[in-house]
Structure formats: structure tokens, C-alpha cells
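Hello K.,

You asked for the raw outputs rather than the summary table, so here they are, unedited. I folded two proteins back to back in the same session to keep the settings identical. This is the first:
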Amino acid sequence: MIEPIPIIDLTTSRAAGASSATHLITAKNLQAALDDAKAGLRIVNARAELSTHTWDGIEEWVGEDGALGLKDPKIVESDVQAQISFLRKLKFLYLEQNAKDKYVKTIVSDDAPLVTPALNEELRVRNGEKKTALREHKAKLEERRDDLRALSGFVEEDYKKAQALTLQASTLSQKILDARLSLTRLRQAHPHPRLTITTANQQLDGQVEEMQALDAELADTQEKIASVRERIKVGTGQVEKLRSVRAEVEKAVEIGAGERVEDGRVVGLYDWFSTTTSTHHTLVSLLSAHSESDNELRLTYRVHEREVCITLLFIPNTRCLAEARVEGVEERVIGDVVDAHVMENNVSGLVWAVLARARAT
């Protein structure tokens, strides 16, 4: 800071010796008054005022410890400008008070200060050096300001990124709390023992095996359905054939009834007998009953998708059973059932025993 020293041309002389003592006393009193008032000067309390000065518009940025927690570059810039303005005013006040103080001391002093051209030149050189240093400091300060302006964009970008990351962290924290709450609810809803990875894998293997068994069963069922459809198709053809045969037989019966039978109940009895025979065949799974000769009867049954043929041989002109042959059933399954019933001459018992053994296998 440059301290200008006023150059006073003292060409006049003082008053007479009688008045010198009066001026000396007056000067001493003034010096004492200045010393007493030194504590009240603004220059003394300027530093404390600067440290405790509060800037308008940034009250919300005061930290917990009372210090200014400036973070926004715009607020920092406004704070710097306010401090520069305050320091300029303080500098002006200092220069003013210093000049007044020196001026008063020069007036009231008995010995006039000796001001020579050499002293003025020395002051000029010193002021020039100070101005040069001041210009350098100002250039550095301007360079620093340019750097701050260039970096302010990056700072703002980093600030926005930090703000976005803060928001993301807050969102993730809320999601973590929600997940913990959901986990707590699941644990309360499903107490111990819980399903572990090992038990889950075992249960999955069991379900896979069960599904494979069900797939195999489904394939077998589909094969059975296909075979049943084929038999239905064959049966439908046989039914159509039998219908045609029946139509021919009924036609022949009507012709014979008209020619040779005088009793009208024959046709009804014939229909009843045909229906009863068909129902009986369906109930006992009888496919056909064919008489090969006068003493031989061949019965064909369907048991578990296979045909069982029973051939009965009788003694001619009698109802005594002489022999019985069974086809479609293994001999070890039948055993001695056939011989026992042949000896007893029990035809119905023989048929039902063979069919029961066949259905059991």
C-alpha cells in the first residue's frame, strides 16, 4: 500500500519564543487526545469488522460452526466482489486518516520535517516499484480469475453429476429399504423350515420324474385310444354288415311268415330272442358262437384286448361234455380247471372259470 507523504513548504517562521511554550502545550494535549481516541478509530476495528461482516443474500450458506460454507461459484463470485468493494473503501479510509494524522502532526510539530528532492525521488522510485508489483499481482489475479471462469463450467458439471449421483443414491437407498421390508414380510409369511436349494432341486427332480411317468402314461393312453378307434371303426363296419344281414333275414322271415307260419307271435319272439342274444353277448364280451358240427361248439370272447377261444366237444346225441380246449390263455394260468369241470360236466362253470383266470392275468 502506497503511503503518500505530503510535501509542505515551510517558508514561514514561528512566532516569538513566548508563544512557543503555548503551542508546545497545545501539541502535547492534542497528542494525548489522539492517543486516547486511538482505540475508537475505525482503522483499528476494521479487521474485526471484516471477519465478522455478513454479506446480504448468503445467510442460508452459513455452516454449523458459523463459518461461511460457500459452494456455488456464483455466490463465491458475489462474495469476492463484495470483499473487494469493502477493502477499497477501507483502503480509502486508511489513506484519508493517515494523511490527516500526518498533516496534523506536521502542523503542530516544532521541527519542520526536512523534505528534499532526493527524498521525493526516493519516494517516487519506491512508489513505482510498488505500482509495478501491484500490476503484477493484478495480472496474476486476472489470470486466476480467467482460470476460475474456465473451471467454473467443469465445477458446475461436476456439481450436477454429484447431484444426480446423490439422487440416485437416495433412490437406491429407498429401494434397499423396500427390499428389506419385502424380505421381512416373506420371512414372516414363510417361517422355518424354509425351502432350501437342495430340497428345491430334489423336489424338481421328483417333479421331472413324475412328468416323465405321466408322459409315458399319456403315450400309452394315446396308443390305447388309437387302437380303440380302430376297433370302433372295425365294429362299425361289422354293425353295418350285420344290419344288412338282419334286413335280409327279416325280409326272409316276413316272406316265410306269410307263406308257412300262421302264428303272428313268431316275429315278435324272433326279435326278442335276437335282442336278448345281442345283449347277452355284449355283457359277457362274447364275440361269436359258432357250431362247427353237431357235437362241437366254438365260443370266442374278448378279454383285455385279446381273444380267448373255448372249444366244447360233446358226446354225440347227448349233453355230456367230453372234452374242452382253450386258446389265447397260457396253460399254466388255467391249470387243472378244465379237466375238473369236464369231469363234473359243468359247461357254464368251465366258461366262467376260464374267463376269470384270463381276466386276472
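The second followed immediately with the same parameters:
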Amino acid sequence: MSSLLRMKTLISPTFAAFSPRLSRPTFSLPLSSSNSSIFALKNSNFRSLRLKPCSGKPAIRCLHGSPQMGAPRSPSSGEVHVIVGPMFAGKTTSLLRRIELESSSGRSVAVIKSSKDTRYGLDSIVTHDGVKFPCLALKDLSSFKETFGLNAYDQLDVIGIDEAQFFEDLYDFCREAADCDGKILVVAGLDGDYLRRSFGSVLDIIPLADSVTKLSARCELCGKRAYFTLRKTGETQTEVIGGADVYMPVCRQHYVSGQAVIETTRIVLESQPQKVQCG
């Protein structure tokens, strides 16, 4: 409930790459990795909105702006922007930068993540660098309107979705929110699983997208650009939530060789007779 209240008082950003109203092509994310990771609103009129790390009281972002912040968005002006790539490519960081830009331009935002990802708690999305941002954790996106509140939803301009591969209803939600409700959606997620197969519904929303950004990481073995995620462990199910202890980004060469090593090890282990301990 506390995270929902914080989300309902959120205001957040516009993409330099996506919005012609911004003059700056880049933006440096002024977020803190400390526990005081929500930001204080200093000006109630929002004329000079600056989001700064707060000490002491938890900071708030107000959802309700003054009239000069811009006219209501028409239903036809919705957008879908998709950010994909392997693990450790900076997808969440890129999402937060774009959300920050939307906030600084006076738009109201909310951020959603899957309740399956409990690594850093359920009230924040967290980058691999430790940067936090308040969010609402949901099992499915269809419950967002009701959970967030219909009136609050109507006032939203931008919705960020992190770890989008875990939402089975991603396509329907994005289509309705952009086409019917005029929302800007920023969607970040894995495009492929550890077997380089389509992961969840992320690739299904490409036909809906106004833009698609494919990020790369750095190969952990050679330093080249990495577009693939190699699983280090022996689990074979598609969804295994973990960090650097389970996955690493790799280039094509080391993905292929790494998969061969893993498969060879598995075959060897399975072919060995199991030892029987006698009491």
C-alpha cells in the first residue's frame, strides 16, 4: 500500500530521442544509489522542477501539475518506445533516464515492474549499479488501472514498464494504453532468453512501437560488444531470476563456445555412474 501511495504522488520525464520539444539530445540521470532514492519536489508550481536526492523524510513526486505544464494529451497521440538487449546492457538505466526526461518536461509518470522480480524488494526498480526508482509491482498489467486508481490513471502521461518479458498481457495493455488512452509507454525488457529464443511478449509489441532501441553489453570474456545472455547454471526452465551469479553477457563467439562447454559438461555428468553410499 505504501508503494502505491508513493506511485500515486509520482511525477516523472520526455525522451530527447523521441520528443521534438526537447533541445538536449542527452541527459545525465541525477539519481542516487543510496536508500534515499526517491526525490523531493521543491517547487509546488513545478515551474523549475528539479529532482534531488532527499535525506530524512521520504521524497514525493506530485502527480497533479499546474495548468501551464501542458494541455491534456489526445487519445491519438499515444506512443510506444521499446528498449531491448541482453542482461547488463543498461535497459533499466535507459528506462529511468527517459522517465526522468519526461518528468523534467512536466509530464506525469508511473513505473511498473513484475512482482516476480523480488531481488531488490517490490517497491522499487533497481539498476545493476544500485540506482533506485519507486514503482508498482504487479502480477499482470491488466490490473494496473484498478490498482492505481482510474482517476489517477486518467492523469498519467507516461507509463514505464521494466522487466517486460514477465508480462503475458503486454501486447494488449500497450495497444490499449497507447491507441485508446493516449499514453506514452516506455517498455524495457529482454528480447531473448538464455537460448536466444523470443522471451515473453516483448517482440510481439515491436509492430506497435514508434521506436525500438537495441542495447548491447560488454562481453565478460573478451570485452567485445555483447548481444546475448549466457546462463552459467544448469537450470533449463526459461524463467530463472538472477544476477551476475547466474548470467553473463557474451559476444556471439563466446555464446556458442560457452553453450558447447555447458552442454558437454552436462553430458559428462549424466553419463557418470552415480555413487552409492553404503551405511
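The mean pLDDT is 75.

Happy to rerun anything if the numbers look odd on your end.

Regards,
P.
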